[in-house]
Design goal:
Layout: E1 5-11, H1 21-29, E2 30-38, H2 40-43, H3 50-69, E3 75-78, H4 83-94, E4 98-102, H5 107-122, E5 126-130, H6 152-160, H7 198-207, H8 215-229, H9 233-236, H10 249-253, H11 259-275, H12 282-304, H13 326-333, H14 340-352, H15 357-370, H16 375-385, H17 391-402, H18 417-424, H19 429-434, H20 454-460, H21 475-500, H22 507-513, E6 516-520, E7 558-563, E8 600-608
Parallel strand pairs: 1-2, 1-4, 2-3, 4-5
Antiparallel strand pairs: 6-8, 7-8
Length: about 650
């Protein structure tokens, strides 16, 4: 701590003391100014929902107390203009020589961070970024040809074969505050206005009964799970009622617990069990670490394919005829679809900001497959209401469920909510908890009350169509509509590709036409002028690090230009109805504005046959792709989630 540096530690989603590489580096080299900047104008369409903002407020207060005890208060700033302007104010006020921060990987942060870094470097201020969020940086995991992976299994297999530095950094035991902090106009935690009304404050008071934000509480939750919950994780993780998972996801989002520490503790526990002869616990460990891998993969996908927050990874789905139906979307949001398990999940989500990952998969699948609602609408609603809302994880989950990924759900997969209810809530306990109208329905009928005899309905007090809705769409109708939508997609996709061929149609061309379009990213070598440890940012002007395509040989070559942040508008159909103050958690409607600045990346597309076989030169794609669940980072389930309703699928024309 004897250095002469005056370092600003720019906190974002790394609100912890322990294993915080940026904080540790600053503490070693001199005096420190920890700062958190809240700039609502820069959040745009991804302005956090009410529950997420409550968590942020509580976590900042917890972090502030911790830093104060180390000798250095946390400076809070509400920036009306921009984060860059606030950072420049801090730099000039204290004469800072360096700014350090831990990296983020979502497309919005990538653009903002690159802009800030270039501006400060131009002013002669040293900028240094660290990996405080991942086991493996996105640019470290490519196949032997330098291509980005587009299937989770192959990505994670590659990761597991890479050397890694797992040992977490020790927390600093003392911080030296910078002189001149009194020259900076800061904000109190309340003046950040993370809670925008008295009604929000009242609702948020109920959240503290179930959750305890803050890095120290995150470590206690982790230790409790590793010691008591992990051993039965493989058996309990699919139970939708009760506490059957780690409950770490909201702590993960705000960086209150280190992924490296989680990985290390879990692996050490696995070794301990093996030494004690508890080999059966190995499945639980592998499943949990795989869920950590899915979180890693979500960051990897957003970094390499930064357009995935607004359109599908598979290019063919740009022709998918999503149903723009606000009435159906409202019925889904309010838990009034007539399918009890789906409705229970949506009502729990609205009331508490939380629901089990299996329920998230079920309700999202219903939205995109039964109702044909655009997956981007569902993703945005989840972002608005979830306590653990996480851009990268939600993108991965919704793309997976909608069939927008090479290893996602098949486009024609349609799971029966009635069968799912019998599988995951066999006694109906979960449904009765969240749908009081069905509280007296027997378990035999609770997941399909429309089939119950009138005498049962009368005793249970259920009047279908009056106090509980009839199914919003019949199963066979949903099946027909889904097949028609897929058929339409392939017809439009084929027509576009035929038009591009200018009438030169041969058998080889036809085989490529009837195939999935999979983007391919090629990583270019690091610019000699850029620090090797610094973050690689996909930009198009040749500075620092860049992603540029190599030429593909063959008739299936397709180059598409991708904007990191496009200025397109997403139709605002995600507004949330008013909720009684007594509810635990509610959503928050927010603007859909997107920052107008963008950075272009060129990505190549290669083709995969709808039946599962791929064509193209890339070696990392296998001939048959396993489809693995990519829901929230915490709970992966590759098993079928219920009986699929099917009929012979329609082939592309």
């Amino acid at each position: 701590m004897g250095g002469s540096e005056r370092t600003i530690v720019w906190f974002r989603r790394d609100l912890r003391i322990d294993d915080n590489p940026a904080l540790a580096a600053a503490a070693r080299d001199g005096s420190v100014l920890p700062v958190f900047i809240w700039c609502p104008a820069e959040e745009g369409r991804f302005y956090p929902g009410r529950c997420s903002r409550w968590w942020l407020k509580e976590s900042l207060a917890h972090l502030g107390r911790s830093l104060e005890s180390l000798g250095c208060p946390l400076l809070l700033i509400r920036a009306e203009e921009s984060t860059l302007a606030a950072l420049l104010q801090c730099v000039h006020s204290i004469g800072a020589t360096r700014v350090v921060y831990n990296r983020l990987y979502d497309p919005i942060s990538l653009v903002r961070d690159d802009k800030i870094k270039n501006e400060l470097l131009g002013l002669g201020i040293s900028m240094q970024s660290f990996n405080g969020d991942l086991l493996y940086e996105p640019w470290e995991v490519y196949d032997e040809n330098g291509h980005a992976f587009t299937t989770f299994n192959m990505y994670w297999e590659k990761c597991m074969g890479l050397p890694t530095e797992i040992s977490p950094s020790l927390a600093p035991w003392r911080l030296v505050p910078v002189p001149g902090i009194e020259n900076i106009h800061g904000s109190s935690i309340d003046n950040l206005a993370l809670e925008s009304s008295k009604a929000e404050e009242s609702s948020n008071a109920l959240l503290s009964r179930a959750w305890s934000p803050g890095w120290h509480n995150a470590e206690k939750t982790l230790e409790d799970f590793v010691c008591h919950g992990l051993v039965d994780y493989s058996k309990d993780r699919m139970k939708v009622a009760g506490t059957t998972t780690s409950l770490l996801s909201p702590y993960f989002h705000y960086g209150e617990v280190s992924i490296r520490k989680v990985y290390q503790l879990v692996r050490m526990q696995q070794i301990k069990w093996e030494n004690e002869g508890q080999s059966e616990a190995g499945e639980s460990v592998n499943l949990f670490l795989r869920s950590i891998g899915l979180r890693e993969y979500s960051r990897y996908m957003c970094f390499n394919f930064p357009f995935t927050h607004e359109r599908s990874l598979l290019g063919n789905l740009k022709h998918y005829p999503w149903r723009v139906d606000e009435d159906r979307f409202k019925s889904w949001r309010q838990g009034m679809t007539g399918y009890p398990l789906v409705d229970a999940g949506m009502r729990e989500l609205w009331a508490t900001g939380w629901t089990h990952n299996r329920i998230r998969v079920i309700v999202s699948s219903f939205a995109v497959k039964f109702l044909l609602i655009p997956w981007t609408w569902g993703m945005k609603y989840f972002w608005d209401v979830l306590l653990d809302a996480d851009i990268e994880s939600d993108i991965l989950g919704w793309q997976y469920i909608s069939g927008s990924l090479p290893d996602g759900h098949e486009l024609g997969r349609l799971d029966n909510p009635e069968v799912q209810g019998q599988k995951y809530d066999p006694d109906g306990e979960y449904v009765r908890t969240w749908i009081p109208e069905l509280a007296r329905m027997p378990a035999e009928w609770v997941h399909h009350p429309w089939d119950a005899p009138n005498s049962i309905l009368e005793v249970a007090g259920v009047e279908l169509g009056l106090n509980y809705p009839m199914p919003i769409v019949e199963l066979h109708t949903a099946r027909e509509c889904l097949d028609d939508a897929i058929s339409t997609m392939w017809q439009l996709d084929t027509a576009e590709k035929l038009a591009e061929l200018d009438g030169e149609v041969v058998e080889d061309n036809l085989s490529h036409i009837k195939s999935f379009d999979i983007p391919r990213v090629v990583l270019k070598e690091l610019s000699p002028s850029a620090p090797h440890c610094d973050q690689k940012v996909p930009i198009a002007d040749g500075r620092n690090h860049e992603l540029r395509p190599k030429e593909l040989n063959g008739s299936n070559k397709q180059t598409i230009s991708i904007d990191v942040i496009r200025a397109s508008k997403m139709e605002d159909t995600g507004s949330i109805a008013n909720s009684p103050v007594s509810r635990k958690r509610s959503g928050s409607s927010c603007a859909f504005d997107v920052p107008s600045f963008s950075s272009s990346v060129e990505v190549q597309s290669q083709n995969q046959h709808p039946g599962g076989a791929f064509v193209g030169s890339s070696r990392y794609i296998s001939q048959k792709t396993e489809r693995n669940c990519a829901g929230k980072a915490e709970d992966d389930d590759s098993a079928d989630s219920g009986t699929s309703i099917s009929r012979p699928s329609k082939k592309p024309a």
